[in-house]
Amino acid sequence: MAGSVVRPAVLADFTECFDLGREMITGTPWEPLGVTRRESHKTFANCVASQAGFAWVACADGAVVGVLLGSVLPWPLSDKRYVTDQTFAVKPGSPGAAAGLLDAFSAWAANKGLPMFMAVSSGVGGKHVDMFYESRGFTRQGSMFHKAAPAPGARAA
Known about the structure:
- There is one protein chain.
- By secondary structure, the protein is α+β, with helices and mostly antiparallel strands.
- The protein has one domain: Gcn5-related N-acetyltransferase (GNAT) (Aminopeptidase, 3-Layer(aba) Sandwich).
- Helices cover about 30% and strands about 30% of the residues.
- Strands 1-2-3-4-5-7-6 form a 7-stranded mixed sheet, sandwiched between helices.
- About 25% of the residues are buried.
C-alpha cells in the first residue's frame, strides 16, 4: 500500500468514515454506547459544513483509511475557546495517515490561534501513542494531549 493522502472530507465520504468508526470502536469502552447512522451523519455533516468544524480524511488506493473530526468549543469557565477532536480513527497499516490528519488538524487550530486538546479514550494507548503525539508537538496532560496556541502574531507552520 502506498502512503496516505489527506484532504478535506466531503459528504460523499460519510459511509466509509461511518464504517471505519464502527470498526475502530469494536472492543473498546465506547462500544456499548453504539454508533447510529443518523447521529453520526449529523456530526459528520456539521464538521464538513461549519466554520467551527474540521473534517478531513486520509485515503490510500482510493479508499478512506482515516478520519479526523474536530471542532471549536467554548471553555465553560471563561470566554475562551479551544479545539478538540470528536473522533480520530485510522486503519492499522496506513502509512502516514495518522500523522497527516493530525498535522492538518494542528494547522487548522493554529490558524484560528487556539490551543488543542486531543482525547485518547478508545482504549488504544501506550508508549507508542505518547511518542506519536509528542513527535507532533503535543504534551500529555492526564488522559489528554495538549498543544498550546501559537503566540499572537506567529504564523502557523
